[in-house]
Amino acid sequence: MRYGYGFSQAKILYLSRLILDKFNEDDGVELFADDNQLIKAIKTGIEDEVKFYDELRQKAEQKILSQKREIHEGNREWELLISKYFTEELDKLDKV
Predict the structure, then answer these.
(1) What is the pLDDT of residues 33-78, one digit of tens each?
(2) Which phi and psi angles does 66 have, rounded to 5°?
(3) Separation between Cα atoms, residue 63 and residue 86, nearest integer Å
(4) What was the pLDDT predicted at 4?
(5) Longest dimension (CA), the chain
(6) 31 — alpha (psi -120 to 50), left (phi > 0) or beta?
(7) 71-82 burial, b for 16+ CB within 10 Å, e for fewer?
(8) Is 33 within 8 Å of 55 (Cβ atoms)?
(9) Could you give the CA distance from residue 50 to residue 46 in angstroms, rounded to a whole number?
(10) pTM for this one?
(11) What separation, in Å, do the N-terminal and C-terminal C-alpha atoms of the chain show?
């Protein structure tokens, strides 16, 4: 499975292991589960975040696609609008 923003299962697993390594190196962190359980929990958290941001990006894309004139994906105007609408979607969540 491949997620948005270039995240594959392998990359998410790699990041999960890096995070767990940092926890294990920190004397101020006490872990109460085995590494496999912790990696699974970290991996799930990363996947949920990536899905969340993918959904916001899709909402932003829909706003662009619903405009009367055609705006081509990848050009400068598209990138500016995606950024603007993505930020607007994030701002809506802050107000809720």
Answers:
(1) 999 999 999 999 999 999 999 999 999 999 999 999 999 998 999 9
(2) -85, -5
(3) 10
(4) 63
(5) 57
(6) beta
(7) eeeeeeeeeebb
(8) no
(9) 6
(10) 0.77
(11) 32
As given in the structure block, the two tokens for residue 45 are: 């958290």
Q: What is the DSSP string of 22-36?
A: HHHH-TT----S-HH
Concatenating the DSSP letter of every residue in 35-78 gives HHHHHHHHHHHHHHHHHHHHHHHHHHHHHHHTSSS---TTSHHH
Q: Distance (Å, rounded) from C-alpha 23 to C-alpha 7?
A: 22
**b/e burial code for range 29-65 (CB count within 10 A of at least 16 → b):** eeeeeeeeebbeebbeebbeebeebeebbeebbeebe
